[in-house]
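pasting input
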Amino acid sequence: MKSSSLPLTEISMAKGAADALERAGFSRRTFIKGTGALIVSFSMGGALRTLGARQTRAGAFGENPAADSPPTVEVDSWLAIGSDGTVTAYTGKEELGQGMSTAQTQLVAEELCVPFERVKLIVADTSLTPDQGVTSGSQSHPANFNHANLAGACATAREALLQLGSKRLNIPVEELVAVDGTIRSKSDATKKVAYADLVAGKKFDIKVDPAAKRKPASEWTVLGKPIGRPDMAQMATGTFEYVHNVRVPGMLHGMVVRPAAVGANLMDVDESSVSGMPGFVKVVVKKNFVGVVAEKNWQAVQIARALKVTWSNAPELPKQETFYDHLRNQKPTRDTMSVNSKDVDEKLASAATVVKATYYHPYQMHGSVGSSCAVADVQGDKATVWSPTQGVWHQRATLAMLLNLKPENVRVIFRRGSGCYGINGADAVTYDAALLSQAVGKPVRIQLTRKDEMAWENYGFAFTIDERAGLDAQGNIIAWDHEAWAPVLGNRPVYTYPGNVITGFLAGFQPEEFRPRSPAPEPAAFSNNANAVPSYVVGHVGGADHGAGTIKSERVLLHNVVSPFWTGPLRSPQRLQNTFAHESFMDELAARVKADPVEFRLRHLSAQRMVDVVKATAKAANWDARPSPRPRPAAADGVVSGRGISCVAYEGDNGFSAMVAEVEVELATGKLSVKRLVVSIDAGPISNPDGLRNQSEGGALQGTSRALGEEVTWDDHNVTSIDWRTYHSLPLGFAVPKVEVVLLNRPDVPATGAGETAITVVAGAIGNAIFDATGARIRQVPFTPERIKAALAG
Amino acid sequence: MSLISLKVNGQTHSFDLDPTTPLLYVLSDDLGLRGPKFGCGLGQCGSCTVLVKGQAVRSCITAVEAVQGLEIVTLEGLGTVDKPHPIQKAFIEEQAAQCGYCLNGVILTAKAFLDRNPKATEAEIQVGMSRVLCRCFTHTRMLRAIGRAKQEMAR
């Protein structure tokens, strides 16, 4: 190995670990060997790291990258062109199973005018790729497909290649075109030069130019096409390497022993209870963290089960039966005001009708089908981890804190896990693996038990939401008042809070401090990141309207309180819960004035893209325009049917979606069948229509599962949703509704996210369809038969 | 500890281990197979499914001693990237996955079901798949792929 230029060599790994890496194709040397490329853009970074030097901090999209990240302003941080014409692209936006790697490969191929197959994408490795924060929040497209970062680098590189080609061919740039990895004359195809001949062996050494011209969507030949995922065949044949399949020579196996109750402290560990068991290596204790290491995986499972651990008593958890009121009555609170026109009370007092309703949403979990797994190799003052984390640089910084190592001595390599949908156990299990490995000085793999995954993850937020609106005599909404309570504890660990997830906390780190704040400061800038602001208000902040609607009198207030359980982003965090409340309430208002729910929405919307998705959905669903509830036919078999609509401007401006749901309800039992879901999505220019469809179909059905069955439950001391019998996910065999996706392509606007848009509107659409069918309003998720039956009776 | 002999994807392997060890651990850790996966360890989700004498079996709760000498086929034993089995091909063509972690259990459960019920209706297929979980909810595509595989396998 030519050590001088390889970041790999800075980190001493177990014998064979480097080889394992290389087999997986992720070492720098492999690129050089495989492609003949001499461009080693991070050899400089590596050298700087060795010398302890620091590069200039560069701003990635919405993030503050680590100081020694490949600078996001440099083209070389994103791209390298090999002597065989292969393009290697580096991205911090991961493949979480949603097709992002395919779309990003299309982007690079398109902008650089090379065939799709000639692009090799390197994803999230702190030794190789730029710090792009976390892959989350529907931000991968906004970050990498508009004008900065990966897209900007590709466009800049293409323009640079045209300039270089112009010099080489002695032809003006205007008469040149980039095609198939070459620059050639527009008029004479024989006059051409390959990229490799222009740049291979050299760095670009230029800054990403945000003004570099992107190829217009009308000229796309690779982007915009439904290219199949290259990883699909490997997944279908059992050859794809998930983090669960990473094997490092000399690797041991770990398991953890979590507290006997939420908030319990470790009193005693009796190592003699397991030290004689086959394969026993070590019991590892750090404050309240307890784990075991064994030679083999099954041995570790058995040892963890057998280990005698004594825990202190813990305070009782708040009762689940009264939890939603508990939220409302908690002190202290941290209050956030999103909009406040300061005339809401006055307008409500003058309204012809005031409507009020309260909605409840439970804690829900990510519940990855494969429990979280990681492999760590911590030796001396160096560490390498293979992690399914959503943010390798974040993970690196917090691992360094946890292990008391220098961040630059920690390498985090992303390996895909089971679909995460947000912060599942990925970060916690990486800490688990690292703590165990550090204690034994050898590589350790750990995959959590089902219970350890489910009982201790960072749940999606529970919510209690009060909605209040005033209607004028003509049936128009004149004021909207929203007040919500949501519990928080921990979060993503970001760069400084290992204690934001269970393992870091058990090992002695505190979660990010809860900072009470009441009353809320007046909003200084508009943000609808949580979709707390309904689509139907003007969103007036700082002298301008930012909302999607027409209602001028508006107030949106959130009270965060301390959660007894860990919380964190779960697909469409807060946005799904708030949208359920807004869209159900909008339906209640429409019903109150006997308006058609589609017409009533359109009447209060101003944003054209919202209007368009609502209309497109209604049209595709062949919407039956009339007020809800549906006049009840004499249903001989006691089954009634209905339809409902719901829509969202995701985060205000990060994608638009509407859904029509058609349901049947069995009146005697409350049994609900979702028959059909029609969902429209506008995510800007479509990178890959099949990928977008797949995301929307999955969002529609995952949203159905969350609306119909998913709820975290607990008793006095513990979470009781600990497997698939106690947490209800709709299996493959449930009566799957017909899902129809309508894609609205917008080639001329910036790209938005698409992974969380469809799921956001599902509960509202289904709840509204239940109302349409039965006349009964269901205001609490999940819509279990018991709750529907109770609503029918009440 | 005892000597256990397993026939996996046509090859026989011998192990000296605790005979109650779940089959999954031997397949993953001793044979390094990537198809069968740990999902729940409780036989609830299907990620660990393998075929034993053509039947879909949950390897996370099946002791190795119970399947000694029996024909065990894992996802990688069904077909390869270059030569996928018709049911694998159907999933690739339908792009019927997101994260793909559950795919092992989905494909093998469907394979075992279709082998026994080659003329199953859509509704019967849904019942046949009712104990398999996909948390990305790629259900629509997966059921379409199974329908497609049914046609292919009938030829």
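fyi Chain A has three domains: 3-224, 244-313+366-452, 324-363+461-793.
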